[in-house]
Each structure stands twice: as C-alpha cells, then as structure tokens.
C-alpha cells in the first residue's frame, strides 16, 4: 500500500467517524501526534486516496474534515488497510494490545514477550504498564510484576470481564460491533489492526450464534431491547462463554439471585442461558443467569427513565424524594438550588438505578470517593445525613453518597456562590496571540468562569495544574492530557462540547469554593485614588509606542521561499538585529506555525506572534505579499494568505503590554477589523487602533476601579 502508517491510521479514524466531521486537533489527540503531523500526512495522502480509491476529503470551516465517497469504496479502503502489514503501533494501540494480552492470559507473561509483541523496548512496556495500572484500579484490578515469573492482572473474574467490556466499548464504535454481529468478513490477521485485535476477545462465530438466538428469544417473548443494550448483552454473553470454556468461573450473590427469580428479566435470562447451553453443548453456571438478568434490568432502567414512567421505585415518588434531598441540603447550607427541571431530573434519573443497585446488593465502585471526601467533606456529610433521613429504611453506602454529592453540588452551584470554578488559563505558545481570541469567546460561552487569564507555555510552571482549568490552542507535551483540553482558537461547536466534557470530568477534582477565594477587598484609600491614574498612564504610553512604531510593509516575494520572506520582513521590522538573531526569530515563528494553524478563517490573513529575548519592545506590523502562499488556518484547513500580521514582544514584559498585544489578536474576531487590516492604508489602520484602544483603556480602568 502506498499510504504511510500514519496516513492509514488517519484514514481509519475518518472511516470510524462516518459522515461526522472531525477536527485536526481531535485527530492529533486520538493518534498522539501533533496537528502539524496530521496536516502534513493529509496533504500527502489526498491525491493518493483520490487516484487509488476514488475518495475525497471534505472540509468545513469550524467543523473539520470528513471522508467523502461511496460506502463500497470506504469498505474497500478499510480492507486494504487491514491487509497491509503493520510494523509498529501508536501508543494508545500499544497499551490496548498489552491490556488485551494480559486480560486473556491464564498465566504471567514475561516483560520481554510483551515488548517483542509490541515491537518496543521493555522500558516502554514498563512505562505503559504504569498507566494501565491506573486504569485497571477503576475495576478493582491490579498489575502484578514479579521478577522471574512475569506480568499478570490480579482480580475477580467479574472485574476482568468488566474491563474487557469497557475496552471494547472504548475502542470500537457501535457500527463496528454491529458489523461484527452481521457478517464474517473481518480480517483474521489481528496484529494488523488494533480493532481486529480487540475483537479477538470474543469469537466471531460465537457472537453471531448468540445474536441469532437472542433474535429468536426476544421475538418469541415479545421483549424489545434498544440496539445499544442488544449489542452490550451480545458482547457480555460472548465474553462469558469464552471465559467459561477456559475454566474461568464467576460467582453471583445467592440471596440476590433468589430475589431476582420472580422477575420477567430472570425468565428471559433463563431462556437465553438454556438456548445457549443447547447451541454450544456445554453447561452454563446458574450464576450467569443472575448477571444476564442484571444486564436486562439495567437496560430497562436506562431506557425507562428517559422515555416513560415506570413502576420500579415509582418515578413520581423518586422525584419527590430527589426534591426533598435538594431542599434539605440547600437549607442546611443556607443557600438555594436551581429550581429548573434539569437539576431535579438529573438527580431523579440517578436515584432509580442507584436504589436498584443497593436493593440487589450489586457492588458499587466510586474511584473519586476519597477525593470527594477530602475536598467536599462538609457537603458530603450534609448529603449523607439528609439521604439517611429521606431514605430512612435503606442503608446507602458512601460510594453511592459520593455520586449523589456530585448531583447536589452541581445543582447548588448553578444558582448560588457556594461553589465556583477556579481561574481558567488559556494557553498559546507566546501568550499574546490566539489565546486572547479564544478567551473572549470562552467568556461568552462559559460565564461561570471566575476569571480567564492568558498565559504562554513558558509560564505554565507558575500554575497549580491540579487546581486550575487549562484550555490550550497548542499541545502541551509535558502535561498529562487529562489535565487540559486542546481546542482551536475559534471555538467551534465540537470545541465547545470538548470543553463541556472536560469540565464535567474535572468538576470534583478542583475542590475550590468561594470561601477560599482571595479577592483582597480591603484597599487603602490612597490606592483607590492613584491606581486608576497610574494604570491609565501605563496603558496610554504602551498604546502610543505601539501605534507610533506600527509599520505597513509590502514584500515582492515571487520565487522566494516562506523562510526567506520571513527573514526579509523581520529584518525590516527589527533592523537592529544581527543576521543570526533574525534567523533565530524566524525559526521561532515557523516553529509556532508547525504547532498549529495561524491563518485566520474566512480571511486572507495569517497571525505570526512570538516572545523572544532578541526583541526589545512590543510591536505590531502588517506585511502585504505580492504573491499569496498557502498556510493552515486555525481551524485546520489550508488557505491562501496575502497579508501577514506580526505581534512581537520581549520575553519579559509588563502584564499591561501583553494585554494590549492580546487585544489586537481579539480584533481578528471582528469583521470590521479584518476588513481594515486587509484593505486599509496605514492612516486608516492607525485611526482604527487609536479609536479602539481609547475605549479599551477606559474600560480597563473602570473594571479595575470596580474591584
């Protein structure tokens, strides 16, 4: 195959997306490479996939890219990639492969054997195992590493099955699982494709036989099941049968099993197990009936609470109980809760399955419980006390209380200042470019942020990463991906969802409340009088120097490279720089471009920005190109630019100077500003900047005076 391994991986991700658009930054995250790498590989493969497979890439500003072509051609590409011999694995594939190998092994496996399988060193495998171990803790599993014997996963059979199911759900789409149920055409060479390797957890013939039997049973017994629940049950049964054949037994609480025997779900589960015993020719332990019953009941609960009133726990009564919990907690904390339906419905929906789990003695795990108790101990105790009062006949374990705390805390936060978000830090490579554009949009979309601060990557070491919100326009290789969210500077719909998801994940990891906030409200009277005057003087001087030194340049760039063009521009902007210093500055600008797009969507502008010790003062300049050149925009697509904007600053500069430079980048969200920068004379641009910054300075002083 002519496509490189990375191009094959990109194609597979696009195939998984189906008709959905995906951003380049999201592709980069999935494949653990840079956006620049994605851009380069896509550019190199477009012609190939058109010529060889009649497929094209459709781009949509603000959304990303998707694969266009017939389903037949897409399936053909998928098969060709699977047939192509894989030489190595991406990091996420490697960890999945190690997990799959260990979970299905009946004895310890040598570290060297895992390294050879993944084609990496034993040190790399050992590092992967550290991350795998953290993931396995959520299933009450642990990794045992013993010199001389090898590596194995320790834990109950039930926990191992849960981990396997989670692996399948995390790595395979519903479409892929459904396709597996419907046909037998999957590749047999599991090493070629990590999805196929994962599907090795279950025998395909077994899965399809199960599907046929389930179809018959559900049709005969008039028991409807949603596609997602149907797939989940099929995979559960396939895993169970494989493990039973290997002698891995599972146990189910006998008292709970007796309680379940009168239910419709138990009757259906018994029939399923009976049919499968006959079909496969070996006995299935009665404990398995219990797990199938629980699976059916769980599926019923998930659909019922969304779509209809159900008898289980009586939804109207549950809603009353949920409201009572919120009312009691709000009263005790001397606050209120958001009385709209969202908060109440969320807690009501949670309580139904929660009470079912407690009633049937299902094991409840809450890996965040220690953190919740540490950071929100007061709220935890209040919620626990009131839950005990509301449900006086039920012993609710602390693990479940922890989940209820999340609902109550979120409800209280919506309308009251008892819980707030900490500062949000928006990061770009320099702190003066795209981050400020993004911050403005974030303020509009996420008003709950107490404060949004723009910083550069150089300033990250000053931030308490564990207790801050980090939103970045560039990858942060030294920070774990769970600690920040990577989005584009133009905050697309997909970006908004990524931020919402990130906030949901870290909500209860932050542990800050309003009492811990230091607004320093007491100020000396003299400071109140003199501070605005001093600030106005600072801002005015900075803006005056910036506008006075502004240059509108033009460059005859026909026949010369981008690097040479930038050298000539930087020499004109900073004539005091030596040739070596100019080369270093250009290298910095190009490095920033490689980290992510710098083109302004829907415009012919590109924004170069940098902070460097070589630069002695802040400056803003615009250069017109005689001949446009191609560049990647901030949303990933390739555009032609005719004007280059430069925001330059020393490494060490005042906060006010950075604010002024960043304000210019915000202007690139405004159509009027873009039009002026594209077509205006120097006089037009200077007049526009003077008018804008006059208003800006007044607003800044008023804001500071109000604090």
Structure in words:
The protein has 707 residues and is of the alpha/beta class. The chain has 5 domains: 5-83, Winged helix-like DNA-binding domain superfamily/Winged helix DNA-binding domain (Arc Repressor Mutant, subunit A, Orthogonal Bundle); 202-307, PTS-regulatory domain, PRD (Orthogonal Bundle), CATH 1.10.1790; 315-415, PRD domain (PTS-regulatory domain, PRD, Orthogonal Bundle); 424-516, Rossmann fold; 530-706, Mannitol-specific EII, Chain A (3-Layer(aba) Sandwich), CATH 3.40.930. Helices cover 58% and strands 10% of the residues. The protein has helices at residues 5-17, 24-31, 35-53, 71-83, 91-104, 111-118, 122-137, 157-171, 174-182, 194-199, 204-220, 227-245, 254-260, 264-280, 287-307, 315-332, 341-359, 369-375, 377-390, 398-415, 434-445, 493-510, 525-548, 562-573, 579-595, 655-667, 671-679, 682-706, and strands at residues 56-60, 64-68, 142-146, 150-154, 424-428, 452-456, 469-472, 485-486, 551-555, 605-611, 619-632, 638-649. The longest helix is centred in the last third of the chain and has 25 residues, at 682-706. Mean pLDDT is 76; it is low at 184-194, 300-314, 414-420 and 511-531. Residues 201-306, 313-418 form the PRD domain.
Break the fold down into its secondary structure elements and pairings.
Blueprint: H1 5-17, H2 24-31, H3 35-53, E1 56-60, E2 64-68, H4 71-83, H5 91-104, H6 111-118, H7 122-137, E3 142-146, E4 150-154, H8 157-171, H9 174-182, H10 194-199, H11 204-220, H12 227-245, H13 254-260, H14 264-280, H15 287-307, H16 315-332, H17 341-359, H18 369-375, H19 377-390, H20 398-415, E5 424-428, H21 434-445, E6 452-456, E7 469-472, E8 485-486, H22 493-510, H23 525-548, E9 551-555, H24 562-573, H25 579-595, E10 605-611, E11 619-632, E12 638-649, H26 655-667, H27 671-679, H28 682-706
Parallel strand pairs: 5-6, 5-7, 7-8, 9-11, 10-12
Antiparallel strand pairs: 1-2, 3-4, 11-12
């Amino acid at each position: 195959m002519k496509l490189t391994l990375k191009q094959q991986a990109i194609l597979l991700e696009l195939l998984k997306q189906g008709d959905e658009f995906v951003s380049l930054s999201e592709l980069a995250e999935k494949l653990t490479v840079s956006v620049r790498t994605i851009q380069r590989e896509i550019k190199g493969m477009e012609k190939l996939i058109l010529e060889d497979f009649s497929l094209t890439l459709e781009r949509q500003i603000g959304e990303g890219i998707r694969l266009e072509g017939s389903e037949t051609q897409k399936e053909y590409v998928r098969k060709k990639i699977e047939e192509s011999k894989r030489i190595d694995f991406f990091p996420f594939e490697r960890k999945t492969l190690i997990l799959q190998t260990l979970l299905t092994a009946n004895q310890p496996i040598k570290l060297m054997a895992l390294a050879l399988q993944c084609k990496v060193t034993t040190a790399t495998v050992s590092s992967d195992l550290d991350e795998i171990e953290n993931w396995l803790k959520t299933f009450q599993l642990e990794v045992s590493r013993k010199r001389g014997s090898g590596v194995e996963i320790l834990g109950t059979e039930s926990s191992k099955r849960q981990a396997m199911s989670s692996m399948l759900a995390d790595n395979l789409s519903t479409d892929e699982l459904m396709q597996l149920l419907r046909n037998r055409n999957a590749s047999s060479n599991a090493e070629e494709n990590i999805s196929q390797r994962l599907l090795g957890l279950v025998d395909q013939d077994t899965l399809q036989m199960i599907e046929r039997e389930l179809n018959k049973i559900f049709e005969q017994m008039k028991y409807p099941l949603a596609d997602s629940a149907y797939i989940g049950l099929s995979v559960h049964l396939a895993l169970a049968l494989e493990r039973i054949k290997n002698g891995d037994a599972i146990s189910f609480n006998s008292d709970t099993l007796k309680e379940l025997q009168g239910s419709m779900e138990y009757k259906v589960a018994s029939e399923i197990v009976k049919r499968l015993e006959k079909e496969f020719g070996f006995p299935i332990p009665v404990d398995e009936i219990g797990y199938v019953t629980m699976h059916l009941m769980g599926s019923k609960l998930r659909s019922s609470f969304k779509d209809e009133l159900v008898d289980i726990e009586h939804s109207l009564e549950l809603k009353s109980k949920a409201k009572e919990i919120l009312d009691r907690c709000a009263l005790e904390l001397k606050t209120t809760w958001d009385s709209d339906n969202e908060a109440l419905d969320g807690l009501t929906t949670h309580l139904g399955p929660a009470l079912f789990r407690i009633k049937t003695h299902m094991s409840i795990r809450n890996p965040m419980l220690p953190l919740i108790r540490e950071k929100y101990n007061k709220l935890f105790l209040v919620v626990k006390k009131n839950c005990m009062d509301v449900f006086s006949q039920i012993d609710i374990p602390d693990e479940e209380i922890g989940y209820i705390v999340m609902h109550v805390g979120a409800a209280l936060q919506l309308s009251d200042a008892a819980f707030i978000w900490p500062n949000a830090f928006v990061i770009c490579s320099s702190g003066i470019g795209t981050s400020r554009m993004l911050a403005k949009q974030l303020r509009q979309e996420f008003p709950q942020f107490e404060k949004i601060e723009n910083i550069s990557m150089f300033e990250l070491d000053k931030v308490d990463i564990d207790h801050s919100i980090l939103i970045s326009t560039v990858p942060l290789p030294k920070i774990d991906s769970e600690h920040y969210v990577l989005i584009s500077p133009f905050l697309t719909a997909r970006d908004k969802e990524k931020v919402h998801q990130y906030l949901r994940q870290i909500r209860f990891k932050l542990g800050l409340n309003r009492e811990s906030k230091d607004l320093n409200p007491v100020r000396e009277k003299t400071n109140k009088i003199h501070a605005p005057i001093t600030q106005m003087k600072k801002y005015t001087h900075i803006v005056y120097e910036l506008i006075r030194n502004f240059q509108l340049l033009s460059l005859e760039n026909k026949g010369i490279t981008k690097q040479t063009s930038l050298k000539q521009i930087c020499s004109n902007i900073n004539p005091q720089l030596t040739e070596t210093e100019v080369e270093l500055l250009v290298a910095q600008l190009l490095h920033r471009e490689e980290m992510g797009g710098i083109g302004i969507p829907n415009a012919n502008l590109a924004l170069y920005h940098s902070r460097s010790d070589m630069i002695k003062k802040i400056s803003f300049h615009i250069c017109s190109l005689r001949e446009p050149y191609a560049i990647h925009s901030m949303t990933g697509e390739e555009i032609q630019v005719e004007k280059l904007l430069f925001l330059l600053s020393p490494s060490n500069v005042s906060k006010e100077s950075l604010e002024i430079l960043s304000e210019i980048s915000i202007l690139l969200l405004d159509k009027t500003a873009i039009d002026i920068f594209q077509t205006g004379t120097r006089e037009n641009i200077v007049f526009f900047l003077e008018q804008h910054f006059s208003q800006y300075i007044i607003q800044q002083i008023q804001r500071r005076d109000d604090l």
